Amino acid sequence: MLRIEYAYWLCGLLLAVCAVVDARARRPLHTAFWGILAVVFLGGDAFETMYTAGSKFADQLVGVAVIVLALLAGSGKLKRRAVDDDPPTREASAARLGNKLFLPALLIPIGTLVLALTQPWLHVGDISMFDAKQATLTALAVACVLALIAAMWLTRATPTNAGTETARLLDALSWAALLPMLLATLGGVFTATGVGAAVGHLSSMAIPADSRLACVIAYAFGMVAFTVIMGNAFAAFPVMTAGIGLPLLIQQHHASAAAVGALGMLAGYCGTLLTPMAANFNIVPVALLELRDSNAVIKAQWQ
Length: 303
Fold this sequence. Notes:
Shape: globular
Strand content: under 5%
Oligomer: single chain
Number of strands: 2
Helix content: over 70%
Order of helices and strands: HHHHHHEEHHHHHHHHHH
Number of helices: 16
Strand order of the largest sheet: 1-2
Largest sheet: 2 strands, antiparallel
């Protein structure tokens, strides 16, 4: 059975390769940054086993690792490496391959969709090939591996080239590569600490709860505001849905849960376009394109 843990191990292996590449290039801070992250990914199962056994050492170790990563990123010395070290070769390769370069990228969404939809029928005997609890994420991981294989076949690259290019891109993104992953956990933290309930209480005091229109406006603009703060609509969604969407729109005004969810995520995506916290949309492109204005993408989307 394919489990999501295998994808985490693969991510950890790629991060370890990046650390080795940076170590050979004598970039100690980058080596430490990607090396620490690799240990966290590769040791996930061991840390969980220790936590289940009642040991707090695993949590403390990961917490220290996160603090060290933050200090390295905040030091300002984790500078991005140039994105393209050999422009003529890359331009010649791009001209030769043309639009075929998009095929490996398209394999990721198409492969994920196909595998996710067909996973109930993908089994060997009585054993399913995908863990039903994480079927979609596992399908995404498999699709990424297939896309990698297709890309190496198309470009006639080797696994060594793939590892080197991964290190080059991650160094180009630097710490911004981690921001989406960290922000994705923020919604769960806010929900666990009761932020959603607090938002609901404040909203009921600030808006006329009997007005459907007022509740819809508060929910939509609240999703925009929280997404701007968190940088991720998925992180803002549980907070605003627990505070306004569920108690006011669905339970009190009997709105369709599907419609409320669609409205909330659409409003949240509008907030994604307006904030530098949405690193994967607004900061990563700036780094990859080496734009002089770090807010160029956001300014274009505001307009």
